[in-house]
């Protein structure tokens, strides 16, 4: 779950400039999950446990590309 949580830091890329810079994730997660993060987890700090919980809760609603990016991220050991 920890690596899944890391995946969701991408929301900061599409958030206002005042938002925190992401500390977790990778380019594929940022590319393929940004829209899902905004749609399902808007307003949540991307580096927080709450973001992880939001993605876990909404995983079945995430886009196929985002789910694939998460799976690849987890398979690579979260790197």
Could you please describe the fold and organization of this structure?
The protein is mainly α and 79 residues long. The chain has one domain (2-75). Helix content is 58%, strand content 0%. It is built from five helices and no strands. The chain is globular and about 25 Å long.
Rg, Å, rounded: 11 Å
As a percent range, the share of strand residues is under 5%
Poorly predicted runs:
10-18
- Domain count, please report it: 1
- Fraction of residues in H or I helices: 55-70%
| Number of E-state strands | 0
Major sheet details: none
Number of helices: 5
Overall mean pLDDT: 78
Question: What would a concise description of this structure say?
Answer:
With 79 residues, the protein is mainly alpha-helical. The chain contains five helices and no strands.
SSE topology:
Layout: H1 2-6, H2 11-14, H3 27-41, H4 49-58, H5 64-75
Helix pairs in contact: 3-5
Properties at a glance:
mainly alpha; 58% helix; 5 helices
């Amino acid at each position: 779950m920890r690596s899944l949580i890391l995946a969701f830091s991408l929301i900061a890329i599409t958030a206002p400039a005042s938002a925190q810079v992401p500390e977790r994730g990778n380019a594929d997660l940022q590319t393929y999950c940004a829209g899902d993060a905004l749609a399902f987890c808007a307003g949540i700090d991307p580096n927080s446990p709450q973001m992880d919980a939001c993605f876990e809760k909404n995983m079945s609603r995430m886009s196929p590309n985002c789910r694939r990016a998460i799976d690849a991220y987890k398979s690579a050991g979260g790197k």
